[in-house]
Design goal:
Layout: E1 2-8, H1 18-26, E2 35-41, H2 51-61, E3 67-70, H3 73-76, H4 80-92, E4 96-99, E5 104-105, H5 109-142, E6 155-162, E7 165-172, H6 174-189, H7 195-204, H8 217-224, H9 234-242, E8 246-247, E9 258-263, E10 284-291, H10 296-315, E11 327-329, E12 336-340, E13 349-353, H11 354-357, H12 369-392, E14 395-399, H13 404-425, H14 431-456, E15 459-463, H15 475-485, E16 486-491, E17 496-500
Helix pairs in contact: 4-5, 6-10, 7-8, 13-14
Length: 502
């Protein structure tokens, strides 16, 4: 069956009526061919949201239509992109398209060639639109506006008036932000606390999460790594710079008053609808238009602990012992594998030398995993108790702290020197400009040295160490503490040797 389609947005003197369009279309219908009329009166051609157009597309999908005839190309669509998308749909069902006025017929070689050219221009239009949307997205982020979606825990969405126009922002919910600060401080400052322990404590206190009533490791970790909470100062600028993240604001703007945003963290959805994570170096960091709430030192300390957890998961993936990744054969120095015998009721941890398994070690490890763990645990507890006794007295260390403005200056100096060096490497400097560049680099280097000297000046400060109750730590935290103090645990046939890092 043939479909005759007509559209008229306004019934005015110079417009072509629906009836005229249909009469012109009928001239191409051969005698004996069946046709059906589809018409949209009072609808624009700027998009395909037209009732009879959609009814026609439904009939195409049902296999009822073999050919569509329109009087003129713009009666079908005024958007090249919409037309090409619709043509792909028609091609899927083997439907031909004819425009009376333009003598356009996709059943002919010329029509197919023209269609191919139109598809190329439509693809260019798609890419232009995508670039425009992306540029607008990052420009909004650069201005500090909230980029959309549900507000994270501790915030609610609000509006700000900037330069006479409303822009989205986040506003603090005091009671919930108090919980946020508690989570950050505990994870940064309590050595024996874990993601699981924090979530368990919050659940026991009946504090609901953001999307669900309970907390878990994932929800806590996502909060801790989110820069929406941090007071972004020069340390935060340096942190993301080190990670290779593109920073849209100048370092001079990192005054510690505003929070931050990391945008462009995920790719577009693939064919399965999954949006995979990008490398963090592909993301962009922008200062937000709401204030930061978490001190940068606490926030960075949390990132360090999270990174250590990830490293431990990669190095010691085993779940049978918290010594995974640290235990080695004392004879061949190959790794010791810990496993459990599933047929045994109490499932003791058995240890096996990888060298013995591969036939290069003649010795047999006779210790059980629990025995080795108990021995190392006792030694670790003794070491930690010695540290606790020392920390009960006043401990004086040498540390230093320069102002945020000086940190900003140091970052600016390093970037200026790098820019001058790039200019020289690219061969863009003449003899005259080389003299200027050398003088500037010398001046910048002198100031850089002054700041570094200031950092090296000792400042005496009293600190207290948190007591670590190793025996009651969770599995992952035991791995963390063990890897902090122990270089390796060498296992021999009848005894164990601990090699300490200190």
């Amino acid at each position: 069956m043939i479909a005759l389609y007509a559209r008229q947005s306004l019934d005015v003197k110079d417009s072509i009526s629906i009836d005229v369009q249909l009469e012109k279309g009928k001239e191409l219908v051969r005698k004996g061919e069946n046709y059906r009329v589809y018409s949209d009166k009072g609808f624009s051609g700027k998009n395909t949201k037209r009732p009879d157009f959609q009814r026609m597309m439904d009939d195409v999908a049902q296999g009822r239509i073999e050919k569509i005839i329109v009087y003129r190309f713009d009666r079908f669509s005024r958007s090249l992109l919409d037309f090409c998308v619709t043509w792909e749909y028609l091609s899927k069902y083997g439907v031909e398209f004819i425009s009376v006025n333009e003598k356009f017929d996709t059943s002919t070689p010329l029509g197919k060639a023209i269609m191919f050219i139109l598809m190329i221009f439509a693809q260019m239009e798609r890419e232009t639109i995508a670039e425009r949307v992306t540029d607008n997205y990052y420009e909004r982020a650069k201005q500090g506006s909230w980029m959309g979606g549900p507000a994270p825990y501790g915030f609610e969405i609000d509006r700000l008036i900037i330069d006479g126009r409303e822009v989205p922002t986040l506003r603090v919910i005091p009671d919930k932000m108090k919980i946020v600060k508690e989570i950050f401080q505990r994870y940064a400052q309590e050595a024996d606390v874990s993601l699981g322990k924090i979530s368990k404590d919050l659940n026991l206190r009946g504090i609901p999460g953001k999307k669900r009533s309970t907390w878990n490791n994932v929800s806590i970790a996502r909060m801790l790594c989110n820069p929406l909470y941090v007071s972004a100062d020069a340390d935060i600028y340096a942190y993301y710079k080190t990670l290779g993240v593109t920073i849209t604001n100048d370092v001079s703007e990192f005054d510690g008053l505003s929070a931050g945003m990391l945008v462009g963290k995920r790719k577009a959805a693939d064919a399965s609808g999954i949006r995979k994570r990008k490398s963090i170096s592909q993301a962009k960091f922008s200062l937000a238009n709401w204030p930061g709430n978490i001190d940068s030192k606490i926030w960075i300390r949390c990132q360090q602990r999270l990174a250590m957890n990830e490293q431990l998961k990669r190095v010691g993936k085993g779940k049978n012992t918290w010594l995974t990744g640290l235990i080695f054969c004392g004879y061949c120095n190959r790794r010791i594998v810990a496993y459990k015998d599933r047929n045994t009721l109490n499932q003791p941890i058995r240890l096996s030398c990888a060298g013995h398994r591969d036939g290069i070690c003649d010795h047999v490890i006779r210790q059980q995993g629990f025995e080795v763990e108990d021995y190392v645990e006792r030694k670790l507890i003794n070491l930690l108790e010695e540290c606790d006794q020392k920390s009960n007295s006043e401990v004086i260390i040498e540390t230093v702290e320069i102002s945020n403005q000086e940190k900003i200056e140091l970052q600016q100096i390093e970037e200026k020197i790098q820019n001058f060096l790039k200019c020289i490497e690219a061969g863009q400097a003449s003899d005259t400009t080389m003299k200027f560049i050398n003088a500037e680099i010398e001046k910048l280097s002198k100031r850089q040295e002054e700041l570094h000297q200031k950092i090296m000046e000792p400042v005496r400060q009293e600190i207290k160490f948190e007591k670590i109750d190793f025996k009651h730590l969770e599995f992952e935290d035991k791995k963390l503490v063990a890897s902090t103090y122990i270089e390796a645990v060498k296992i021999f046939e009848n005894y164990v040797e601990i090699i300490w890092k200190f």
